[in-house]
Design brief:
Number of domains: 1
Helix content: 25-40%
Bound molecules: coenzyme A
CATH class: Alpha Beta
Largest sheet: 8 strands, mixed
CATH superfamily: Gcn5-related N-acetyltransferase (GNAT)
Strand order of the largest sheet: 1-2-3-4-5-6-8-7
Order of helices and strands: EEHHHEEEHEHEE
CATH architecture: 3-Layer(aba) Sandwich
Number of helices: 5
Mean pLDDT: 88
Low-confidence stretches: 155-170
Shape: globular
């Protein structure tokens, strides 16, 4: 998996020592993410399925995803700490997942997001298209998907320039 580094923010796969910081960040975003189990994070880290963003030694974001055997990817959790939001960190985390999907010849990256969350605007901005709505009382989930073939090719030499799909996608 590529190591994306630019402007002091490094984006790369988590290792087990990162688990406490990832869990802390997940807990601080509990209202949006729900409860994230430490053990499921640990197992995902061991499978190389958690990407983190750090400034120096400070964890500022993570993305937990799953490589399904049918060559589709599912994003389970993504969060950027509030002080670092709206500066492109979330986009880079998604970009790293898409790069991994390209490397694994995956066809699509999917996720579900509660309809009331502002994050739905983020997914549209970074190239996901709405694929439906799932009613799971008491809340509705928006289904998002990004076709890997439509995503911009990964550019690991200048990752700060990389983007995943057009802003108008979806
Ligand atoms: C969703 C989240 C991960 C986005 O991370 P971020 O680092 O702030 O996102 P970025 O700065 O990379 O934004 C990328 C694009 O999405 C847009 N965007 C970001 N947040 C947005 C929002 N709430 N509404 C609409 N657009 C948004 C940005 O404007 C940017 O667009 P641009 O490149 O055209 O300017 C972050 O807000 C977060 O952690 N939220 C709390 C946890 C959460 O809701 N997770 C998702 C659960 S489903």
């Amino acid at each position: 998996m590529a190591d994306h580094m630019t402007s002091g923010v490094r984006v790369w796969p988590a290792v087990e020592q990162d688990l406490p910081d990832i869990k802390r960040l997940a807990d601080s975003a509990k209202q949006s993410l729900g409860f994230v189990h430490r053990e499921s994070l640990r197992r995902a880290i061991l499978r190389d399925e958690v990407i983190i963003a750090k400034v120096d030694e400070t964890m500022i974001g993570f993305c937990h995803f799953y490589r399904r055997q049918d060559r589709t990817f599912t994003i389970y959790h993504i969060a950027v700490e509030p002080a670092s939001q709206h500066s492109g960190v979330g986009r880079r985390l998604i970009g790293a997942v898409v790069t991994d999907a390209q490397e694994h010849q995956a066809s699509v990256v999917r996720l579900k997001c509660p309809m009331n969350l502002e994050a739905n605007g983020f997914y549209r901005c970074v190239g996901f298209a709405q694929a439906g709505v799932e009613t799971r009382e008491p809340r509705h989930l928006v289904l998002w998907e990004l076709l890997v073939a439509d995503a911009a090719p990964a550019d690991t030499s200048s990752p700060q320039e990389s983007s995943i799909g057009g802003r108008d996608a979806g």
